[in-house]
Amino acid sequence: AAALALLAAGCGDDVTAGPASSSPVAASSPVSDATAATDATTTEPSTAGPTTTDPSTTDPMTTDGPASSAPTSEDGVDAAGEALADVGTAPSEEAATGAGLSVVDVRTGRHEGFDRVVVELAGDPAGLPGWYAHYVDEPSQQGSGDPVAVEGERFLEVVVRGLGYPFDTGQEELVGSVDGQGTALVREVRAGGVFEGQAQVLVGLDAAADAPYRVTRLSDPPRVVVDVLG
């Protein structure tokens, strides 16, 4: 009986999920930071040790899965609604800090009420990307002006700034396209190579008119995030 009492007095393991944070910054279009956090959870006493899960990695040009109805910290989005604030159809612009980044990944995802496009960058640890985003009637290549084939009816051009050439940044630059699988409006996203310190990202939308959107900036790693309402 004494041995059983000693076993029953053992302490349970605490499993705590730390808060996820993000720090988007915007200029011409007001943007609020979106954060998500989970409360600490205490398990019942158990003889088994805590269970951990290795973080998953994302291959370039991949598609994020649909979000649940609960808030999620994926790429800094609060699915409860904060990511839907301060949207519009007017051009959006933010200056870059530094010039030593390369586009290394593009991915899409569907959240409650909006599609999300994430442009991930790498290179200069102190660098923060800028952008100029606006709707265009016909997508064309920066520099040459040649037409660019992108799936969709309306086209949102996002020019990502603060970039360098791969031989300067030490990063493998991503050039290519990804389909908007599981999205409501995003049909295709095409990322072009760096040209004069900036890279063109064309978002083709299955929409009859310009859809409200917003652009934000996240760090660790640096990302330019485009949310399209619909």
Automatic annotation (TrEMBL):
Pfam families on file: AMIN-like
Domain AMIN-like: 102-228
InterPro entries the UniProt entry points to: AMIN-like
Region annotated Disordered, chain positions: 1-76
Compositional bias segments (type: Low complexity): 16-66
Protein name: AMIN-like domain-containing protein
